[in-house]
Amino acid sequence: MAPPTAAELDDAIAQVLARLDRALPQFSGSFPAPSSERLIYPAIGNVEWTNGFWTGLMWLAWELTGAERYRSAAEQQVESFVERADRRVNVEHHDLGFLYTPSACAAWRLTGDTEARRAGLAAAELLLARFDPVSGVIQAWGDLNDPEQAGRMIIDCNLNLPLLYWATEETGDARFRTAAERHLDQASRYLVRPDASTFHTFHMDTRTGAPSHGTTHQGHSDDSCWARGQAWGIYGFALGHLHSGREDLVALAARLANYFLNRLPDDLVCRWDLIFTGGDAPRDTSAAAIAACGLLELVRHLPLSDPDRGLYARAAWGMTRALAAHLTPLEGSNGVLAEAVYHMPNQIGISECCIWGDYFYLEALVRMRRIWRPYW
Ligand code: GLY
After folding, report:
1. pTM for the complete prediction?
2. How far is the CA of 203 from the centre of ligand 1 (A)?
């Protein structure tokens, strides 16, 4: 498969920007909900784990075009992230990296906004507070005194760890990086099964530090492999290597990628759980977009001589091309990418737009079009 041409990518990017422009008047003082309803995102305040993706889309669009409307929308939203950190609004979970990395940390890097930096560091402190030194993991959800949730890590957290590495780079305080590295270690040891599929979540004993058992939350079953979890794993372990320099994480990301690619349907868009390899099972375009970004990150870290480097690049190109067939119609939607699945067991956002899918689709296109320094 030939790499996408600049013209092909510019056309795909223009399709995304047209859809962002369509939504922008609605979502300047508010944010899209995590998933759409009949392809329309309801407007919400800065209260969900997903708000950073809309701001990240604005920063990507601004980096691509230099258009003032994207920068001013992003800056207005970053103010609400500062307020959210100051007032501690819905921050009792680990998704602080999803929230603050593509919003406030990107703002600090791109524009030198010192309030954004302060908010990013406050978010990193909140994430660090969720690290349990006995089990060596960051508790994903719930109150830190909740025995049901204590010691439960989830594969998605891999994308929250760059916030901790960033905080160490900014402050010189090694506590953040040390926690990220211990968590990465435990995630690679226990969330990944021997066949390189992943558990969505894994429970550690916080009294002894011993591993207990894996379960799912959004997947088909405890022993299946939730497609988006596997995608978070591919991307997150590749980023783990980027930040820690650990060579074994490149090989691990590649093993997860092999498992994912071996279960791709003919149309190259994964189904919502990798137990399904085609048929009527709903696609998860958002998992495909995350995996494409992960593969592109992985390719950056593989030596030119690696026999599978070309395979991963071609898979990322093919999957991203395939996603173009799932863009929302220009009328009747305010999202970008249709046919994602948010939460099948709870029947939320099935075959809908998911805001992180929109974000990672544009990130994949940006990564292929230009040299781009990841926010993560
Ligand atoms: N991090 C939650 C999800 O991927 O749905």
Report:
1. 0.98
2. 18
Task: Please give the structure tokens belonging to residue 269.
Answer: 């868009």
* Tally of structural domains, the chain: 1
Domain assignment of residue 16, yes or no: yes
Q: Is residue 374 part of a domain?
A: no
Ligand 1 and 94: CB distance under 6 A: no
275-326 pLDDT per residue, tens: 999 999 999 999 999 999 999 999 999 999 999 999 999 999 999 999 999 9
> What DSSP string describes 67-113?
-HHHHHHHHHHHHHHHHHHHHT-S--BSTHHHHHIIIIIHHHHHH--
Catalytic pick among 113, 132, 146, 156: 156
Q: Is 217 in the pocket of ligand 1 (CB under 6 A)?
A: no
For a pocket test of ligand 1, which of 96, 218, 225 has the largest count of ligand atoms closer than 8 A to its C-beta?
218
Closest residue by CA, ligand 1 atom 5: 342
